[in-house]
Each structure stands twice: as C-alpha cells, then as structure tokens.
Amino acid sequence: MEAVSHGAKEAGGLVVGVTAPPLFPTRKGPNAHVDLEIPAPTLLTRIERLLDVAVGYLVLPGGVGTLTELMAAWNVAMIAHMHGQPYRPVGVHASWLELLRPQLEIAPAHLELLSVLGSLEDVETFLSGLPR
C-alpha cells in the first residue's frame, strides 16, 4: 500500500508499516514513506498487529489480503458491539459491499458497523472522525 503511505506522509501523518518480511523475502524493507516499521513473523501475526495498533480501519479496493484484513477488522468490531464494548471504526470503499452483499447473509446491525465511503469527501470525513 505504498500509495496510501505516500498520501498519509504528504498530509503530515506518521506512517506505520506492519510488515511480514518472512512472507516477502525479496523485498528490502518497507516502502520509502514508512516512518515506523512493525515487523511480524507470520501473516496471522501481522493481521493481529494491524488490529491492535490502529484507531480505525480504512479499507480501499484491493485483493485477497485486503479482503482478509477487512473481514478481520469487521469481525472484531461485530464482537465488540455484541458485548456492548466500543469498537474501532471500519470505513470501506463502496465496491466491497457490492462484492460481499450478494455472497453473505449480513444482518442490518452488522452493516451499520461499516462506514461506506463512495467519495473522497466521505474518506476525509471518516478520517477526520478518528481519534488522534
């Protein structure tokens, strides 16, 4: 996600990269925009660390890895919500729901845990609402 890292850096953000070097041995470290690297030994540890360090999740179009991360973040939010606990916001590009709705049985209460982002303005609003 170099483009996201680049944009966050340009906006003055601290860019934290949760990487999994053993999965990509030919890569030479994180991308040039990362300020702080948090390496993980496995994919599952990487996802767990992503879930632990974030104050919210912005899920843009992507592949299988992005889908895995979305489902993990959404599931953690659903479980917290079921137990009356606070949960971290999950903002998703509208295309993910177009993919998931026909394939899954999704309760309306679970859909309400997602912020559907269809425009740059939606993304800006979502990001500005995250805790600092």
Automatic annotation (TrEMBL):
<protein>
    <submittedName>
        <fullName>Cytokinin riboside 5'-monophosphate phosphoribohydrolase</fullName>
        <ecNumber>3.2.2.-</ecNumber>
    </submittedName>
</protein>
<dbReference type="InterPro" id="IPR031100">
    <property type="entry name" value="LOG_fam"/>
</dbReference>
<keyword id="KW-0378">Hydrolase</keyword>
<dbReference type="Pfam" id="PF03641">
    <property type="entry name" value="Lysine_decarbox"/>
</dbReference>
<dbReference type="GO" id="GO:0005829">
    <property type="term" value="C:cytosol"/>
</dbReference>
<keyword id="KW-0326">Glycosidase</keyword>
<dbReference type="InterPro" id="IPR052341">
    <property type="entry name" value="LOG_family_nucleotidases"/>
</dbReference>
<dbReference type="GO" id="GO:0016798">
    <property type="term" value="F:hydrolase activity, acting on glycosyl bonds"/>
</dbReference>
